[in-house]
Amino acid sequence: MKLRYLLLGVFTFVIALLVYAPAAVLYGWSQPAADAPRPPLSLSGISGTLFHGQAAAITLQQRPLLSNLNWSLQPLQLLLGRLAFQLNTNPAGGDALLLDGRVAAGLGGIRVNELKLNGGVRTLASAIGQSFVPVNGQAALNLEHLRLRDHWPTDAAGELQLMGLAWTLARDPVALGDYAATISRDKDDIVALIRTVGGPLDLNGDARARPDRSYELHLQLKPKPDAPPMVVNLVRSLGQPDAQGYFHIRQNGQMPAP
After folding, report:
1. Rounded to whole angstroms, what are the CA distances from 224 to 98, 99, 199, 235?
2. What is the CB neighbour count within 10 angstroms for residue 120?
3. Fewer CB near the terminus (10 Å): N or C of the chain?
């Protein structure tokens, strides 16, 4: 019995040391050796502790992702074997990403709950490796929950909105409208049902992520009767329409294992 209490005391002491140790020191310990591959996600300007701290900037694959990130440890999640944080950002600039939500990591993978992410479409595209996209606008992601295992979704529910999209390769930006995608689980697949909210295009379709790490995208769209000529010409460049006048976009692929 005394040994049990002794071990519990040692465990509590070690956890307390980690939780209240300087976050910059802990982050430095977690980094690989100089000759080892660098992790895709990196932090800079770290202050505070693991319990409550800040990072001035976060980069993904050496591309800016978030700025002025604050975190607070959720200690009760430690009892479930998870390292969980409440996260939020306070960035400057109109296209900077705003984030607020809970993220946890454990043996079962990564769990995201009640997360909101807002920012410029180009900023989001740059963060995932698309340094140039010919459209601009605002994106708003509202996730009720998301479960990731081996960097691939196994469950999700929420909505993505793309508002004020505009084609930017013309002399003057061409308004493309507003769109939304409802994200949910369909048996073992994660599906996003895409629809038009407003604007010159009639668009609908779906994107699907399967457990074998394959994905599919199918969109059908056509200009509305009052669509501007520039929008009509952009859509016609996609090829030939079907019998109902819809043009189709189809993509599929397979993501490699991590």
Report:
1. 33, 35, 8, 11
2. 17
3. N
